[in-house]
Amino acid sequence: MAGSQLRIASRRSQLAMVQTHWVRDELAKAHPGLEIAIEAMATQGDKILDVALAKIGDKGLFTKELEAQMLVDRADIAVHSLKDLPTNLPEGLMLGCITEREDPADALVVHAKHQDKTLATLPDGAVVGTSSLRRLAQLRHHFPHLTFKDVRGNVITRLEKLDAGEYDCLILAAAGLGRLGLGDRIHELIDPSISLHAVGQGALGIECRDGDAAVLAQIKVLEHVPTARRCLAERAFLRELEGGCQVPIGVNSRFVGDELVLTGMVASLDGVRLIRDTCQGPQEDPEAIGIALAHKLRAQGAGEILEAIFAAVRPEA
Ligand code: DPM
Prior knowledge:
34% helix
């Protein structure tokens, strides 16, 4: 492959750059002689910082600008946090590779004055910073004494706001903190019995042009098959529920013997209704497990919960 070139589109945030540099370095190791360039840019999600994520209501908030670069042939691949990549991609693009997942759990990060506290023992009314409806609904369900306040901006900005006293604690993905070298800020990993993580959390997704066989072959070396199976099951579940990235939908996936076991939940925003169930099946057909689980939750009323949320948060036309 000597002499060939690969252009990577990436967001500009610190976390996005750490992730993209990792992909670049791994591809360089696998393909000596491949020339790799990174084009970093801001996305809509990076620019609109004064509106709650759920209210923007647009799918592909963190991905559209990167995708446009591939469609006009100014980039060959885009590196995303898989959880930010919508389950339906624009015509002409495909999810070419899923990398090995880090711990997909959410983490509690507390202000220094709460070092001796847990979610359960934080004082009444303690302010949790999150703009994730998924985190909000599940934590409200288990910890009605907590209150919730939107927080936008990248991980570093959020931590600065926490340390400045705007919040008592934050909930952040453990994987993002780890990749930024901020794992020491993790006060408590949140157990899946309390809160399920987002679809695709902790894995990277590499998008490319559909049918670009040469590029696909180059990036496939980074594919981690067990992670890909888990994430394809999770994404099929989300797609079947027609949930975007801003809905209170959570998952957990694991292997038991040869089978893939998928747990999923849908919750109302007040945390009062929470439907949670599990499906399992042969790991070679992960999407079937995700679809079956979605049907199982729909049969228990998940559709009505989601309709009510869409009606409440959808921006005025
Ligand atoms: C999406 C959500 C959030 C991000 C919604 C959710 C969190 C927003 C918030 C779809 N994207 O998780 O329910 O808490 O206010 C994001 C992060 C990472 C990727 C940061 C984080 C890093 C971890 C990873 C933002 N996207 O969740 O702490 O690679 O999974």
